[in-house]
Design goal:
Length: about 300
């Protein structure tokens, strides 16, 4: 059952800020699938926001008077285990984002934008595993990956699908599993962003997770934190002088998100369903948003 748990993460790793597409968190966890196993998982996510953090101050509406913004995301997720300790992951989202009030994006002059966003390629390796006499276990691993634009979308504006940046991420993953199948996990990482159009801040990434699994289901709760290293605050004179909504990717984006995910196998441990909910607790130049996700999971060995 251990290798199944990663599938429930599909929805939460897609809950991105609707106008800044820096997907900082790497879509991996501390479980390692069996050699030659293949997981394919399409998913659907919906999220909305009618508040955002102007700097660190919570404000009504969204930047440039766009009111409530909603996003629908259809994503492809694939994972293949090269060895028992080494696996690869591919992600590709299609995003539709719109102003529910019909207000026009001040840069793109449209109320709705949709298209393919960024392709993500990741690799994860287990470097240490220690099993104890009481059936508890610790594992230590690492992951790295790159995301880059494949869709022809505009990087500027409030309703942008992304920031047209190439992002290189790396993280260390520590997990402890008790004899009762309760587990805890910590990820520490860093995200490097590069764009020919914007000076996008790099960021530290942190994640903590607590979960439980057995042969019938898997569940976890997760806290994700991003801490950008630099950038503008929305609404400041410096932000306006630099271009306002046209340079949103250059803002300092910090957030703390809380999420819950659930996975259930429904057919011979080959096909299963996942569901998730996530919400923003605090942020800086970030939407205070919430969303739900649903996915199908196919696993072949």
């Amino acid at each position: 059952m251990l290798h199944k748990s990663k599938r429930s993460l599909i929805g939460i790793m897609l809950l991105m800020c609707p106008f800044l597409s820096a997907l900082a968190q790497i879509p991996v966890n501390g479980f390692y699938p069996e050699k030659h196993s293949l997981t394919i998982a399409p998913s659907y996510s919906f999220k909305s926001s009618d508040q955002f953090y102007r700097g660190s101050t919570l404000s009504e509406g969204n930047p440039a008077g766009l009111g409530e913004i909603s996003s629908s995301i259809i994503s492809f997720y694939g994972q293949y285990a090269i060895l028992d300790w080494l696996s690869t992951t591919v992600t590709l989202p299609f995003i539709s984002i719109e102003s529910e009030d019909g207000a026009l994006d001040p840069v793109q002059n449209v109320a709705q934008v949709e298209g393919v966003q960024d392709l993500g390629l990741f690799v994860k390796a287990r470097v240490l595993e220690k099993n104890f006499d009481n059936s508890s276990k610790i594992t230590l691993g690492g992951a790295s990956g790159v995301t880059f634009p494949v869709g022809d979308y505009e990087g500027a504006g409030v309703l942008s699908l992304g920031n047209q940046a190439t992002t290189v991420n790396g993280s260390a993953i520590f997990q402890y599993t008790t004899p009762f199948k309760i587990f805890s996990e910590i990820q520490l990482g860093y995200s490097l962003r590069n764009s020919s159009d914007f000076d996008i801040p790099n960021a530290m990434m942190y994640a903590a997770k607590l979960g439980y699994h057995n042969n019938l289901f898997y569940v976890h709760t997760k806290l994700e934190i991003q801490d950008s290293m630099s950038g503008f605050d929305i609404g400041t004179p410096e932000f306006g002088a630099a271009g306002g909504p046209a340079i949103l990717p250059e803002t300092e984006v910090d957030y703390t998100n809380l999420s819950f995910d659930f996975y259930v196998p429904v057919y011979k441990n080959t096909i299963g369903v996942s569901a998730g909910y996530a919400a923003t607790l605090t942020g800086r130049n970030y939407n205070k948003e919430s969303g739900v996700s649903f996915g199908l999971v196919y696993n072949a060995r």
